[in-house]
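Re-run requested by the PI after the first attempt was lost when the workstation crashed. Everything re-entered from the original request form. Ligand of interest: zinc ion.
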Amino acid sequence: MTAIVNVGYDSTNYYVLGQGRQRLLVDVGWPNTLPKLLFTLKRKDIPLEHIGHLLATHYHPDHAGLAQELKARGVRLVVIDLQRPFIPLLRRVMKPDHRFVDIALHDNAEIACEASRAFLSTLGIAGDIVHTPGHSDDSVSLVLDEGVAFTGDLTSPFAIDDTIAERVLASWALLRAKGVRSVYPGHGPSPRPIPPPSGHDGLPVK
Ligand SMILES: [Zn+2]
């Protein structure tokens, strides 16, 4: 079983996976909140130097806002190739008082989903990263072979409007097909069971 520690704050969940000096952080908070993250890590007894890599499930402020600030402290940012075009868009939603540090594109560990299993194995993690659009087109989920998934903001299939319903349901169906039983979401209670395979109000069951 992979060690999973929730180091979230400000109503968002962030997760540290693994043990030793090569741990993986899944998602990171708003810009200018590094003291909050450091405080939470300290409380959970995780030295920042033991976090080797960061994966953002998607490039929204509450999931990737601190990315460059962590890179400056020696954490390698793992970018899935399909996410790359979305990274420069993040600065557009930031206001000056967020003090956002723009995320450089040239110095990340950029991989395709297909290469994620080999990459994760170098961190001692058995699993892969899959594209799970719905909340946003750059959303990915980290799926562990033990049947848990880190889904970021993949919307509940019971709380969606029809414009994104198809994509959200397809993403949940993909996760179920991969054997996921337990979900570590970006917000709310965690972990929780994967939603059952039925939509709401006449949506197709996938
Ligand atoms: Zn979020």
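Saved to the shared folder this time. The chain is about 20% helix and 20% strand.
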